Amino acid sequence: MTLILDKVQKKYGEIEALRGISMNLKPGEVVGLLGPNGAGKSTLMKILTGSIEQWGGSITHEGLDLKKSLKIIQQKTGYLPENNPLYGELFVLEYLQFAASLYKIKEAPFTDIIEKVGLTEYTDRKIETLSKGYQQRVGIAAALLHDPEILILDEPTTGLDPNQMVEIRKLIRTLGKNKIVILSSHILSEVESVCDRVVIIKEGQLVADKNLDELRKGQQQIIIVEFDYRVETEALAKINNVTKVINTFDFTYEIHLDTQEDMRTKVFDFAHDNELKILGLQLKNENLAQLFKETTS
Ligand code: ADP
């Protein structure tokens, strides 16, 4: 099951939004489409979801040509648009039933999907009463109703707090195990924390295509955390594998660790044990930052 993009091009009048994008996408990896504003990310997503009709090059999925078999491929594609438009006054299950009827999906496995995205306890809640993170799960559930092979997520974690980020990230990674997942972002840390592979686009051209684990090799793990209160750097230095702690700003700390294991959960445990709240948490990938800088500036 491979999605093959070959020299995909799009012009809006004189503006060349995409200038020949080629790549292969397979299930089992979450691909981050990264690029500055105006790079062409949304245009590419709109082409993939069929909302732009006139474009050049070719896209094939399992041998089917997107231009000739748009309807069939659309039935295999789930899409979470950037602003995740929901109907706040509807109840969760009611909304999903409505979305299924809109897309003429006869028998959606609502219970399974609701469980998969962690909404079981919220089915009889009105969407407007849910937090942004849970609303995002409703949007993802709606995109999963027809069990798509391809899942397209436009800026899925924008506006979420760090705890919600961790949850949605986990969910996206689970979905990525057997689906082709593409997410767009202009935020390095979002791609860093959710994706296995990064594709950088600049002015409509593909300027980098890298596996993030490869990119992480040979670099220290750096976690940037903001607490709601001051902590002694010595206390943070006691977390396993910590080599250095820098208090970069007020209650913000840069923790350097000498391990490949993702240590953010340990920082969560530290906060919990010390009755601190985490206001911000991200992994800093200096190699990704460097690559982004080199390819986009
Ligand atoms: P991104 O999602 O990376 O911010 P877009 O795909 O939205 O980039 O835009 C790529 C380029 O195409 C930009 O120069 C943008 O101004 C232009 N563009 C996007 N949509 C339209 C449109 N409907 N009409 C004209 N130009 C557009």
Description:
- The mean pLDDT is 91.
- The two termini are 35 Å apart.
- Strands 6-7-8-3-9-10 form a 6-stranded mixed β-sheet, with helices on both faces. A 4-stranded antiparallel β-sheet has the order 2-1-4-5, with helices on one face.
- The chain is globular, with a radius of gyration of 20 Å.
- It has helices spanning 41-49, 70-74, 92-102, 110-116, 132-144, 162-175, 188-194, 212-216, 233-236, 264-273, 286-296, and strands at 3-12, 15-25, 30-34, 56-61, 64-65, 77-80, 150-154, 180-185, 197-202, 205-211, 221-227, 242-249, 252-257, 278-284.
- It has 11 helices and 14 strands.
- With 297 residues, the chain is α/β, with parallel strands linked by helices.
- The protein binds adenosine-5'-diphosphate.
- Adenosine-5'-diphosphate is lined by residues 12, 15, 17, 35, 37-43.
What can be said about this structure in brief?
The chain is of the alpha/beta class and 297 residues long.
Q: Mind describing the biggest β-sheet? A: 6 strands, mixed
**Count, helices:** 11
Radius of gyration: 20 Å
Strand proportion: 25-35%
Small molecules in complex: adenosine-5'-diphosphate
The end-to-end distance, rounded to whole angstroms, is 35 Å
Structural class: alpha/beta
The total beta strand count reads 14
Helix content: 25-40%
Shape: globular
Secondary-structure element order, N to C: EEEHEEHEHHHEHEHEEHEHEEHEH
* Strand line-up across the major sheet: 6-7-8-3-9-10
- Nearest-integer average pLDDT: 91
* Uncertain residue segments: none
